[in-house]
Structure formats: C-alpha cells, structure tokens
Write a structure and sequence with these properties.
Layout: H1 13-16, E1 26-28, E2 37-43, H2 47-58, E3 66-69, H3 75-78, H4 80-88, E4 92-95, H5 108-128, H6 147-153, E5 168-170, E6 183-184, H7 192-202, E7 222-228, H8 243-255, E8 259-260, H9 263-276, E9 281-284, E10 287-291, E11 304-309, E12 318-322, E13 325-326, E14 335-338, E15 343-348, E16 378-379, E17 393-397, E18 403-406, E19 420-426, E20 433-438
Parallel strand pairs: 2-3, 2-7, 2-8, 3-4, 6-7
Antiparallel strand pairs: 1-11, 5-7, 9-10, 10-15, 11-14, 12-13, 12-15, 16-20, 17-18, 17-19, 19-20
Helix pairs in contact: 5-6, 7-8
Length: 439
C-alpha cells in the first residue's frame, strides 16, 4: 500500500550530550507516505470547470485540486457559487490576479491592487457565497514574474506556481517557493498519453535509465504540478482538456498511489519538511522538546506532517504531545503533527497515560479518551484533565484549515461531500482533541 521508509536513528549520545551537534530527532515521511504526489491546478475561473470537472471530482473523493481564480471576463464574480461549492468540498481556491494582466510592467500600486487586494476580494466573495476560504497560493498570469512582483506576492501568499516543461519537484530539493515548476496541458503539446506517462514518472514507475541527460533525472517519487485551463470537448480550444481525458489522468494518479492533494497542501508539506527535519532537540528532566520557526506567516493555518520521531532515549512509554494534546502514534509508529504549532514535546508517560514510543498504538477504539480512525491521520488527547468532563463543541475543517462549521461528534455532517476532514473537539476541563475523519 503506502511506501514506508526505515526509522531515522539518532544516537542515544545525542540526548545526553548537548554539546555535540547531531541531526534532529524528527524526520518527515516523504509525500505523506505515498510514493509521490500530484497537484492538478486549473486557471481562470471558467464556468466549464464547474460544469464539467465538478462531477468528475465528486466521483474521486481522494483527489483535491486547486482553482486559481481571476475576475477576467467576470470569472470569479460570475461563478462564485460554483467555486464556493468546490471550496466546501475541500478543493483549494488560489489567486490568479484581478484582471490577468502582464504584471512585470505594472507599478507597485497596480500590483497591490491586482494581487494583495484581490486576495481579500476572493475571500469576501466566496464568504458571501457560503464558503470560508483562506487564500495562500498564487499563480502568476503567463508565468511572468520578477523580483519586484514576487515581493508583492509574498505580502499575502507563501508560494507561486510557475511554468516548467516537466513540472517535477524532487523531495530532497528545497523548493523555490515563488517559482514552483508546473507542466502545462495543451492539446497541441502535452497529449493525454504523455500526461498519463507523467503520472507513472511521478510514482517512479518505469525504467528511467535512458532518460534524456538534459532532463531532471528521475531518482524517486516526485511532486508533479499540472497547469490546466478549460475542461471541455471543444477541439478548437488548445488549452482545454477533454473531461474524459482529465478523468483518466486523475484515476491513473490514484491507481499509482500518488498523493493527489491541492497545490498549497503539498507545497506547505514540502517546505515544512526542510525546517522540521533540521530542528534540534533540547533536553528536559522527562524527555526533550523540539522547536522550529515557521518560515512564512502566510502558510495554511494547519500543516499536518507525517513524521518519524526517535523516542528511544526516553523509553518505550514515551508520549508525544503538542500544545498539551497527546498525539497517538499511527499503526506503523509514525506520528501526524501540526507543523504550525512550531514545537513538540517527547516525554515519559505519566500515571494513567498509555505511552506510544516507537510501537503501534494498542489503545482500543472503545476507550472514549483515545478514539482511532481508518484514515491514518489522527491526533488524540488520551486522558481528560477533569474526570467525567465531556466535549461540548466539535468544529469541522477541510485539510487546508478552513472552518466548515460544526458537527455532532466525530462525524462529517451530511451537507459535506465525501472526503477527509479535520474535526476538533473542545470542552470545559478537557484538552482539545483533533482528529481526521473520512466520510
């Protein structure tokens, strides 16, 4: 099923000898445990994306895409309800500027209007249409940027999707966040067969020994970004893709066990791993703490990372926690932590706690203080701080951190489509519990 890597081992000496510099005890699992990743992006806020792509996405609940919207030809305003529905289904809404102009020739005030102000317009417009959206991703029209433009983009976003003929981004190559490469779909260029082959390359399927020497050498699973526009059968529109072709390509990605997540989700995961993996531990009486700096204030509100944590120096009963919430280990011994909390603590279990350490979680789902789920992504507080207390509020979020409303327990409301969601429970006298729930 999912590709796993062996645990990163930190010498025990590193825990006790703080004067010796060692690599940090946390390592991020590449591509969230999948063999690679792919992000499908769609530009220009076209009505045919809603009419022809939305039904396909409803049949592929594990595929989450990004729509880079503009108000060119009244795109955003004229199709706000449709894009709000897509946002509520867990898809990302990004910024493609107000009028889709050539930005490198614009003044600073024009750029602020086109980029910064329009990001707020997107959020307000979709809020009026019923979706709570935080815009964090950007795509430059015509893939045209320079240093001045990127400075304006950075005022409101943490990334920029650019163009590149292969569109592959490798795990161990730190990304240029305002110049992330994407493969462009055109009927006269990237054929459907070629795009299907790209899904294989991203999953590291095939023999790459004869690859062109000038190409980015394929050494493992990678993150493929695909730049699309319209979704129609109109053969006269060179930039549109047939609905049947995009469905085949998305299904191939799922079959190849690629992480089919939005552009902002994968970009944040990729960027975060270079930070958290380099973070060093600070010893305490009962374990150690690992802290790091958030590299960009405009990253998503939540960035779940699947990580391996060396807890051997603490013992088999080691507990991992963030903000006082104990994180239950996954069945393979990894942990899903929130990068945006900016620290985690590993300590010995206290009286009444069940430690996890480097072993699968053995807690029964019948224990109401440690409920598991089948999604493989969950963080749990194991013991209430006040005996007999119960949760009162359950907030539902999409995987980009957008609040979608409330729920009655750890369930996804009927009004939301199939997919994965984050449910956060809170109540007086209880540590909050965050859990990913699939519908």
């Amino acid at each position: 099923m999912l590709k796993r890597n062996p645990f990163f081992a930190v010498p025990v000496l590193a825990f006790f000898c703080t004067f010796v510099a060692w690599a940090g005890p946390v390592t991020t699992v590449p591509w969230n445990g999948y063999v690679g990743a792919v992000s499908f992006t769609f530009d220009d806020a076209l009505k045919n994306q809603i009419d022809n792509l939305k039904p396909i996405l409803e049949g592929l609940p594990d595929v989450k895409v990004t729509f880079f919207v503009t108000n060119m030809s009244n795109g955003l305003q004229g199709n706000a309800a449709g894009f709000a529905a897509l946002a509520n289904a867990g898809h990302e809404i990004g910024n493609h500027t107000l009028s889709h102009g050539h930005m490198t020739g614009q003044s600073e005030s024009e750029l602020n209007s086109e980029i910064v102000d329009f990001a707020g317009t997107i959020e307000k417009t979709l809020e009026s249409a019923g979706a709570n959206v935080k815009v964090v991703s950007f795509a430059a029209p015509f893939c045209e940027t320079n240093e001045s433009v990127q400075k304006i983009i950075a005022k409101r976003h943490f990334n920029n999707r650019n163009c590149g003929w292969h569109g592959r981004n490798m795990w161990e190559t730190e990304p240029e966040m305002f110049n992330i490469q994407a493969k462009i779909w055109t009927r006269s260029g990237a054929t459907a067969a070629e795009m299907l082959s790209s899904m294989d390359t991203a999953a590291f399927i095939g023999d790459f020994s004869g690859a062109n020497p000038w190409d980015v050498q394929v050494t493992g699973g990678s993150w493929l970004v695909v730049l699309n526009h319209g979704v129609t059968d109109d053969a006269g529109d060179d930039y549109s893709i047939n609905p049947s072709d995009i469905e085949k390509i998305m299904k191939r990605a799922v079959e190849n066990k690629l992480w089919t997540a939005s552009f902002g989700t994968v970009a944040a995961y990729h960027r975060a791993h270079f930070v958290i993996d380099a973070a060093e531990s600070v010893a305490s009486d009962d374990g150690f703490t690992v802290s790091w700096k958030i590299p960009d204030e405009h990253m998503p509100e939540k960035v779940p990372l699947r990580v391996k944590i060396d807890t051997q120096g603490v013992g088999e009963d080691a507990v991992v926690e963030q903000d006082g919430v104990v994180i239950a280990p996954e069945s393979d011994g990894t942990f899903v932590v929130d990068f945006m909390v900016a620290s985690l603590k590993v300590r010995k279990a206290r009286a009444g706690e069940v430690g996890g350490g480097d072993k699968p979680d053995s807690t029964s789902a019948a224990d109401s203080s440690a409920v598991g789920d089948s999604s493989g992504t969950v963080g749990i507080a194991r013991t209430p701080s006040v005996p007999g207390a119960s949760f009162a509020d359950y907030a539902v979020f999409d995987l980009n951190g957008n609040c979608l409303g409330t729920s009655n327990g750890f369930v996804v409301p009927d009004r939301l489509p199939r997919g994965a969601y984050i449910v956060r429970a809170s109540g007086s006298g209880l540590a909050p519990v965050t859990k990913v729930v699939r519908k």
